[in-house]
Each structure stands twice: as structure tokens, then as C-alpha cells.
Design goal:
160 residues; 5 helices; binds FE2/S2 (inorganic) cluster
Length: 160
């Protein structure tokens, strides 16, 4: 038996029919075709599936799609401009903050929310923020540098 749920994703409203047991991660990927949200552990450990729910990072593998109705969801597609890369994404590219990129969407969304609260983070604050996102490829060093570079770029060009 399916249920109708109205999802607001990246500013667009979708009415979808889903099984009540469908996770938000699987709904985003398989129903809405937003495959930038990655699924790794499927039990809340790796952070690959992180999206923003009303601006706060959440594990979309731990949430049911039907629970997300009425909330504003942002996926990595929602922070990516139509052309090119967002400054945060550019910083990851410039500083080699990714290798296979599997963890990157979750890290970008976690960082996006973090930098709003911590516009001038210390390396220790960045490492603490990243503790909830597992990367299988890198030693995190370049990721920390990328977040620092993004913070510096935002300080030079604050959003209007
Ligand atoms: S897939 Fe959700 S935390 Fe790993
Ligand atoms: S870049 Fe490969 S898992 Fe992080």
C-alpha cells in the first residue's frame, strides 16, 4: 500500500506515491532521480546520504520519505548552480578535497550548513564537523584545506 506525500526538494514541490517504509534517501534517488545523494552504510554511520532538512543536516537513510512531508529538503543538486560549481564545490576541486567523490555530496551539505554557523572556523572545528562523515579515500587533510579555502572565499565575497 502506498501513501501520497508532498515533498519540497530544492525549492520544487513534488507529490509522490511511496511505500511508507521507503527511506528519504531511496525516495530522492529512485523516485525523484536526484542521484547526487549517495547511500553507503544505510544505518546512519557514514554520512554519505546527508541532506538538509529545513537547513539542518540529516541522514536521509534514517528518515522515511513520509516523514519529510512539509519540510524543505536540500540535496547536493540544490546547492549546485545551473552552470559551473558553487564556491564551496570549487574549493573542493581546487584543493583536491575529493578522490572517488562518493562521500563528497554528504560532506558538501554538512559543510554548507556548518559554514553558515561558523564562518571563520578553526582547523579543529572543521575536523570536529567532519567527524560524522566517513571518507574511504582521503586522509581528510585536503578536505580540511578545502573547507578553510571555502571559508576564506566566503569572507572575501559575503553572500548578499
Ligand atoms: S547511508 Fe546514511 S549514514 Fe550511511
Ligand atoms: S572521496 Fe572517496 S569516499 Fe571520500
Amino acid at each position: 500500500m502506498t501513501r501520497a506525500v508532498r515533498l519540497l526538494v530544492n525549492g520544487l514541490e513534488h507529490e509522490v506515491q511511496v511505500e511508507p517504509r521507503l527511506s528519504l534517501a531511496d525516495c530522492l534517488r529512485d523516485v525523484l532521480d536526484l542521484t547526487g545523494t549517495h547511500v553507503g552504510c544505510e544505518h546512519g554511520v557514514c554520512g554519505a546520504c546527508t541532506v538538509l532538512l529545513d537547513g539542518e543536516p540529516v541522514r536521509s537513510c534514517l528518515m522515511l520519505a513520509v516523514q519529510a512531508g512539509g519540510h524543505a529538503i536540500t540535496t547536493v543538486e540544490g546547492i549546485t548552480p545551473d552552470e559551473g560549481l558553487a564556491p564551496l564545490q570549487q574549493a573542493f576541486q581546487d584543493k583536491h578535497g575529493l578522490q572517488c567523490g562518493y562521500c563528497t555530496p554528504g560532506i558538501l551539505l554538512t559543510t554548507h550548513a556548518f559554514l553558515k554557523e561558523h564562518p571563520h572556523p578553526t582547523p579543529d572545528e572543521i575536523r570536529e564537523m567532519l567527524a560524522g562523515n566517513l571518507c574511504r579515500c582521503t586522509g581528510y587533510h585536503f578536505i580540511v584545506e578545502a573547507v578553510e579555502a571555502a571559508a576564506r572565499a566566503a569572507a572575501r565575497n559575503p553572500p548578499r
